[in-house]
Amino acid sequence: MSCRTLSTEPWPCAMDASKNRFFQLLEALVRHEVEFVIVGGVAALLEGAPILTLDLDIVHRQTPENIERLLRALEKIHARYRDPAGRLILPNADRLSTNRFNLLLTDLGALDILGDLGEGLAYEELAGRTHDYEMAGIRVRALDLQTLIEVKERVGRDKDRAVLPVLRQTLRLKTGEPASPEEPPDE
Amino acid sequence: MERQSSERGEESPALDIAPDGVDLGLIRWMLSLTPLERLDVLQDFVDGALALRDGRVQE
Fold first, then answer.
1. Which of B39, B44, B53 would you mutate first to test chain A, the one with the most A CBs within 10 A?
2. Is A93 on the interface with B (CB under 8 A)?
3. How far, in Å, are A34, A35, A47, A59, A78 from residue A75 at the CA level?
4. What is the ipTM of this complex?
5. What is the pLDDT of residues A80-95, one digit of tens each?
């Protein structure tokens, strides 16, 4: 089966959730009742922006109970830190409750677990600025496009600024806003 | 005249590109997909990119 097509050529989508590793990663977290918000490129993609990424970024709720559930999920998918020195470093409660960046490799691909998005934007602040998505029996929350844009404008790194035009145009098409001749400056 | 040109495939394709260079056609296509289909596009991209990397001829 193919996804609906961009042109006359079918996009070779598998359309089988069980074979999609991004879905499987999300499913592993949901099945263990982890409280998290999808951020970054996958959130942008779910919101409809044609953004491609190699990893799944999430912000997790940093309560002891949630970190315990998260650790159980991570154990199932053999998560370990992407250590440049090649050391085997496993996530633990201390690291997941204090590290801002937990850049992991799992059996299902790269998973970045973030404590916050900077300037106090932790799970509690982000949870109210999300859209829910139901896919093949699981329900997940992704940061909404407006907030994604605001965060990337605020962070202002080159990699964040690079995707802003696509995010802004996607939001414009979704909301039906007319095109403006000039984009606001990134800074 | 125009019709003949179109039948011969000589008509220029319309561009769906914003003034800032963003491909609006890609966005419209992505918005037409379900969330799971969007994840499948992403997965296909990752698989394809990794296959290309693995296929690189070593110098």
1. B39
2. no
3. 13, 16, 29, 18, 5
4. 0.82
5. 999 999 999 999 999 9
